[in-house]
Structure formats: C-alpha cells, structure tokens
Amino acid sequence: MSDDLASLAYEAALRSLDKQEQVLSEVRARTGTLVAVSALAASFLGRPVRDHPHATAVLLIAVIAFATSVAPGLYVVVPKRDLIVSLSGVAVYEGLFEFGDDMEEVRRRLAYELTYYRDENTRILGKLFGALRVATVALAVEILCLVAVVTGTLA
To answer: What is the arithmetic mean of pLDDT over 40-60?
Structure first.
C-alpha cells in the first residue's frame, strides 16, 4: 500500500514538472511572436511619423513602448539556469544509490525533490509571466501610437 502512495506521489510530481516545461515553451513561443510584432509595428512608424508635424511626442512614446516590449521579451526568451525541468540520471543514481533496494524510499525522495524544483520553477515562471504582461501592455501602446499616426487622429 505504501509503495502505491510513493509511486502516486512520484508520478504526480513528475507530471507537474512536465507541465511546467510545456508552459515555459508556450510562454517563450508567445513572447517570440510578441517581439516580432513589436518590431514590425515599429518599422511602420518611420515615414508616417516623420511626415506629421506633431509626431515627435508620438514617436518618442512609440520608441519607449518598443524598447519596453522588447527588453522583457528578451528576458523571457533567454534560457534561465535556475529553471529545472528534468533530472540528471547520473545525479539520481548517485544520490539515491544507497536506497536502491527500497524503491518506495527512492520514489518518495524523488517526489520531494521534484516538488521542490516545481516550487522553485513556479517562482521563476511568475517573473516570466510578469515580464510578458509588461511587454504586452507596451506593445498595445506601440500599436496605439501607430494607429494614431496612420489614421491621422493626431491634432
């Protein structure tokens, strides 16, 4: 019965780490798209802003928004050393060798270790989500500047 509990705990901890890896991949993919859209929007601002007499302030806001969307975006995309989404087989073998005859204890210890990594990853992922939110708001400001210039709504 106890071995079933240890197996269940280990499998749940392993799945949660796998889920975090999927979330990280999705966040990075979305952030890459966001940075590309931000660069594209910035490229459209050049000529219309230059031709408009009141465009200096809009250009300044757009450039700040562009930088504010790209910087956190790059932070999200750059690999993080502290994120652990898998275990080293050698480290598991070396660390748990003495318990090799007691698979219940091995699974129990692995469940605790995987849960610890998940908790640490959650903290880091929270920072990545925050950076993505900042980049998203900055992109919205950048696009609003572009729309204001292109539609001629500047006074």
So the answer is: 74
